[in-house]
TrEMBL record:
It is a multi-pass membrane protein. PANTHER family: ARGININE EXPORTER PROTEIN ARGO, ARGININE EXPORTER PROTEIN ARGO-RELATED. GO terms for cellular component: plasma membrane. The chain crosses the membrane at residues 50-72, 79-96, 116-141, 153-179, 191-209. GO terms for molecular function: amino acid transmembrane transporter activity. Keywords: Cell membrane, Membrane, Transmembrane, Transmembrane helix. It comes from Roseiarcus fermentans. It comes from the Bacteria. The keyword Heme does not apply. Pfam families: LysE (PF01810). This is Threonine/homoserine/homoserine lactone efflux protein.
């Protein structure tokens, strides 16, 4: 196996986490659904393409920044991991307190495919939470002494994008049914909150107790 790929066990755990994170409703999913319902699946996929472009930028920035930090200071890298654990715990508490906010706004599909793409791009490029998430989520899958940390971080970032693309593509294809089901079954969305909170808590503990590796 190439040195920049994670182990099979780690890749499986990471993949499952990405699927759950992608399936948890958020601002990006709400945008995809709004654009799909207003302008058709083409606009939904255009918005998703824009969001993915933003994620590629964040993924590259996180990989370069974290690998540079690791090369400069192992202690600094570990400090980021601990800060990440606290942030993930905060996400877990916020999910339980405030719940999933799937707010699909009515729209007219203004701007067509280009407008939808720009909407998706801007919703990710201007969202500081995505930067923080990449910086806190990815380090727990990399050993502090890993000589291929930068390449692995980049691969993990692209893997996250690939998985979220697949999950959101399904959501876009069944947009009308998905929105109707979500509105008719608020308890189902609440289950996402509990699952998300449990996942973030588990990752936070993993980050906290692996700081010395």
């Amino acid at each position: 196996m190439a040195p920049f790929f994670p182990s099979p066990a780690l890749a499986l755990g990471y993949g499952l986490a990405c699927v759950l994170l992608a399936a948890t409703p958020g601002a990006d999913m709400a945008l995809f659904l709004s654009r799909t319902l207003a302008g058709g699946r083409g606009q939904g996929f255009a918005a998703q393409a824009g969001a993915n472009a933003g994620l590629v930028v964040h993924s590259c920035a996180a990989a370069l920044g974290l690998s540079a930090l690791l090369a400069a200071s192992a202690a600094g890298y570990q400090a980021v991991r601990i800060a990440g654990a606290l942030y993930l715990l905060w996400l877990a508490v916020a999910a339980l307190r405030h719940g999933t906010a799937l707010k699909v706004k009515a729209g007219t599909g203004a701007g067509g495919l280009r407008g939808a793409f720009l909407n998706g791009l801007l919703i990710n490029l201007t969202n500081p939470k995505i930067v923080i998430f990449f910086v806190t989520f990815l380090p727990q899958f990399i050993e502090a002494r890993d000589p291929h940390a930068g390449a692995k971080l980049f691969v993990l970032g692209l893997g996250f994008i690939a998985i979220t693309t697949a999950v959101n593509a399904v959501v876009i294809l069944v947009a009308g049914r998905f929105v109707a089901a979500a509105r008719a079954n608020p308890r189902a969305l609440r289950l996402f909150d509990y699952a998300f909170a449990a996942l973030m808590s588990a990752f936070a503990l993993r980050l906290a107790f692996s700081r010395g590796r």
